[in-house]
Amino acid sequence: MTVTGREELYREISFIGYYFHWREEEILMLSRPDRRRYCEEINRINRQLNGEKNLFGL
Predict the structure, then answer these.
(1) Which of 5, 14, 35, 55 has its Cβ near the most Cβ atoms within 10 Å?
(2) Helix/strand/coil percentages in the chain, nearest 5
(3) Max Cα separation, the chain?
(4) Angle, vertex CA 5, rays to CA 23 and CA 52, nearest 5
(5) Dihedral sign from CA coordinates of 6, 8, 14, 17
(6) Rounded to an integer, what distance in angstroms lies between the CA atom of residue 11 and that of residue 55?
(7) What is the pLDDT of residue 19?
(8) Contact 58, 40 (CB under 8 A)
(9) Mean pLDDT of 50-55
(10) Is the dihedral of CA 44, 50, 53, 56 positive or negative?
């Protein structure tokens, strides 16, 4: 499945917002590399704590 830039942005906003409870405006102020890094860190934390698979597809 191919994800467009807009779809990817919505996924990042939703993912970070869900786990960190940040507002959309706060997340949009981050650069794309920073958003991706936060998504990676959320995945790492989840895998470490819960033994879950990669939730964001990274």
Answers:
(1) 35
(2) 70, 0, 30
(3) 31
(4) 65
(5) negative
(6) 11
(7) 94
(8) yes
(9) 68
(10) negative
H/E run at residue 53: none
- Structure token digits, residue 9: 């942005």
38's tokens: 């936060």
Q: What length is written for the chain?
A: 58
For 12, other C-beta atoms within 10 Å of its C-beta total 19
The verdict on pTM exceeding 0.85 is no
Handedness of CA 54, 46, 28, 14 (dihedral sign): positive
Rounded mean pLDDT, 7-34: 95
